[in-house]
């Protein structure tokens, strides 16, 4: 998809909500499609939406026993978190970093069943 970065950043917030909505409905294929766009945007304007997308993708990959995809998305999330950790919205989402750390530890231990996303506000 060849779209200028500014447009990708704007898509991040919309694709997060679309992807999460599909996740809640159980349409995982559509959820993955939209959440991946939001996650890969790594928008500094919408870091929480990007990180949330990565976390839901991690949950989906863990449930599907897709260890490689899981480790890839968790690594990207932790790396991006370091970049945006001083963002106000990231700071107030105080459960995010501990969840990511615990998910990575469980991934590395092969305990994929323990990786379950917490509910987001609707």
Summarize the structure.
This protein is an all-alpha fold and 122 residues long.
The CA-CA distance between the termini, in Å, is 29 Å
The residue-averaged pLDDT reads 92
The ordered H/E elements are HHHHHH
Going by CATH, the architecture would be Alpha Horseshoe
Q: What is the CATH fold-level name?
A: Serine Threonine Protein Phosphatase 5, Tetratricopeptide repeat
Sheet with the most strands, sense and barrel status: none
Number of helices: 6
Rg, rounded, reads: 13 Å
Overall geometric form: globular
Low-confidence stretches: none
Provide structural commentary:
The protein is mostly helical and 122 residues long. It has a single domain (5-110), classed as Serine Threonine Protein Phosphatase 5, Tetratricopeptide repeat, CATH 1.25.40. Helices cover 72% and strands 0% of the residues. It starts with a helix and ends in a 14-residue tail after the last helix. The relative contact order is 0.14. The model has no long low-confidence stretch (mean pLDDT 92).
Structural descriptors:
globular; 122 residues; mainly alpha; Serine Threonine Protein Phosphatase 5, Tetratricopeptide repeat
Any chance you could write out the topology, listing elements then pairs?
Layout (H helix, E strand, L loop, with lengths): L4 H21 L2 H14 L5 H17 L3 H18 L3 H5 L3 H13 L14
Helix pairs in contact: 1-2, 1-3, 2-3, 3-4, 3-6, 4-6
